[in-house]
Amino acid sequence: MWELIRANKRNSVILMALMVVVLLLLGYVIGSIFDPAGGFLMPRQQMQSPRVIQTNYAGFWGMAFAATLWFILMIVSFSSGDHILLNASNAKLVTHDEYPQLFNVVEEMKIAAGLPAIPKVYLIPDPAPNAFATGRSPKSASVAVTAGLLGRLNRDQLQGVIAHEMSHILHRDILYVTLAGIMLGSIVLISQVFLRSMFYSSMGSRRRYSSGGKNAGQAQLIMLVIAIIAAIVAPIMAYLLYFALSRKREYLADAGAARLTRYPEGLAGALEKIAGDPSPQLAAANKVTAPMYIVNPFKKARSMKLSDLTSTHPPISERIKILRSMSSGVSFKDYSDSYTRITHHKTIVPAAALTKEDIALRQAGAEAKDKQRTEQMRQVGDIMRKINQFVFLTCLCGLKLKIPPNFKSDKVQCPRCKRIIDLPAK
Amino acid sequence: MTPLIVIAAALVLLIVFVIGIYNSLVGLRNQVDNSWSQIDVQLKRRHDLIPNLVETAKGYMQHERGTFEAITEARSKAMGAKSVSEASKAEGALGEALSKFMLVVENYPDLKANQNFLAVQEELTGTENRISFARQSYNDQVLFFNNKTQMFPSNMVANMFSFSKRDFFELESSTEREVPKVSFS
User: Fold this and answer.
1) Contact A12/A180 with Cβ under 8 angstroms?
2) Best CA proximity match to A133, nearest among A110, A103, A165
3) CA-CA distance, B28 to A297, in Å (whole number)?
4) 8 A C-beta contact, residue A111 and residue B45
5) Where are the beta strands (DSSP E) in A86-174?
């Protein structure tokens, strides 16, 4: 376990370093074009001066600018990144009273993972079944699940999903996603702004490029082409780096979930239900936050080959198969063996975590029955309303009324028996 | 002069080494204690829930006096347990009594539909799971600690400062081991 966390930290540092290099190079290249010494933004006479070969200060300014942007984004997301994300998904805090089962499951997994504190639990009012974890450290983490997920899974499956999220917290993936996401965001932002400004400025004053002194103009043009290529390639590289590692972490979180619950079938069953779900894709998700979710929030997979490289998550069917073929035990080693058996790839588990652990699978208890789907969905809906401070009333005719908090009048008419009911004072 | 320095340096290194091992042993022992207290908290929770459970179920199951008595007795025994091994035994018996009770509940559809009972049931399921996961994490810690106290070279430091190995929290009854999770859902 500790070996895995250590290896994960090391990988994060390497990836971050690579991304920093990409970011700084991008800043340098873009900055260089704005170099007044050879600059096309300067009057003609200066351009012909021999200062072209002098040190490229503008390049360093570009670097400094990129670093500053990254730094600012970093501060923002460190101070309130999880809140921004949770607010964007319209997530509501849940307490034990409102949803005992969900809360219990989270606490069970917190105990199994040996985390220092119970993560805050959030509910997202969205029919697409999904879940994510966020935060900076195991001490201040949050777990959010959608109403669609709660409406479909039984207790064991919910436990599997929460264990997967808990593993993300335990493996420090939440911090990594935050850091790498910001890095990726800065790179994309810089190249987008640059490419757009190039596009518009070239439309506005094309003459600038053609009318320079001959040598300086040529150098400038080459610089410009390099910058444009860099601005196109850098985000792609950053994306690929980001996605490659987040795919791997998804497998590792699955392995962690199996280890924590001792019951891979729980997560496998959950993934199966999620995969077969017809709901539309999650509203509040984008390409950068996608790796945080338990399954890819984007439904449409493009051509198979491309999605292999750019998808944030491994194919669900493969994840299910791996979990289901774990028959001898639930240690990381067992998951790794199972992974190799299914995908015929080399293991994704860091070698240090592959020590032989003898952990047996838990037998399923009394076969967990799936409740009636509509019934379960209705319960989740009621819980959502309770969180949103709806008032629940039962009319004398037996009809249940759910009154929204912004209902103005203090009397309400039962739609079935037409009785007038007084609302309790707020 | 030089050999003296070499010897002094070696001594200092050795002391630093021993201090390092000693500290890690203390850290591990505290972790074991901490995870034991986690189990303890959950066991208390279970003990507190039982009167509730019995109270809700009593009205529906008047003919099951024996089952109730078994649970109550197992509970008081478990609450009086002192050592780890004693507690393992008593809690195992209590768990068994509870799962027997849950089997009996299957025959009372009215009770199974009762909202209060459902709530207590969810709490009990949660508590049972918490106990088994806390046990799982405690045993992992104990294994780690025991390995450290018995393996070379840390065993020498462990012997020097008398770190003794800890007991696992095992469940005595074999039935409970087959079905460590009580699932009512």
Assistant:
1) yes
2) A165
3) 41
4) no
5) 92-93, 120-124, 131-135, 141-146
- Fill in the DSSP letter of residue A368: P
The answer to whether A347 faces chain B, any CB pair under 8 Å, is no
Partners of A122 in beta bridges: A93, A144
Catalytic machinery residues of A: 165
- Which residues of B fall below an 8 Å CB-CB distance to A? 35, 38, 42, 119, 122-123, 125-126, 129-130, 133-134, 136-137, 178-185
Residue B122 to residue A105, Cβ atoms within 8 A? no
Q: Which residue of B has its CA nearest to A154?
A: B185
| Cα–Cα distance measured from residue A64 to residue A59, given in angstroms and rounded to the nearest whole number | 9
Contacts of A105 in chain B (CB under 8 A): 126, 129
With an 8 Å Cβ cutoff, is A349 touching chain B?
no
| Mutation choice for A interface testing from B136, B147, B168, B179 by most A CBs within 10 A | B136
Q: Tokens 């009593």 identify what position? A: B58
Q: In angstroms, what separates the C-alpha of B120 from chain A's closest C-alpha?
A: 10
Per-residue pLDDT of chain A (426 residues; tens, 9 = 90+): 667 778 878 877 888 888 888 888 888 888 877 765 544 444 444 444 454 445 567 778 888 888 888 888 888 877 777 787 788 778 888 888 888 889 889 988 998 888 888 899 999 888 888 898 988 888 889 999 998 888 888 888 999 999 999 999 988 888 888 778 788 888 888 888 888 887 776 655 444 444 445 566 677 777 788 888 888 888 888 888 777 778 888 888 999 898 888 888 889 989 988 888 777 677 666 666 677 787 877 754 443 444 555 566 778 888 898 888 887 777 888 888 888 888 887 777 766 666 656 666 665 544 455 566 677 777 777 777 777 777 777 777 777 777 777 777 777 888 778 777 777 765
Token reading at A157:
């499956």
Residue contact A101–B137, C-beta within 8 A = no
Give CA–CA dist A77/A313, Å, rounded. Answer: 23
ipTM of the complex: 0.71
CB burial string A107-132: b at 16+ within 10 A, e below: bbbbbbbbbeeebbbbbbbbbbbbbb
pTM over 0.80: no
Q: Report the distance separating Cα A72 and Cα A61, nearest Å.
A: 16
CB-based contact A104 B137, cutoff 8 Å? no
**Cα distance from A110 to chain B (closest Cα, Å)?**
9
Which residues of A fall within a CB distance of 8 Å from B185? 154-156, 368-369, 371
- Residue that is written with structure tokens 């077969």 in the block: A276
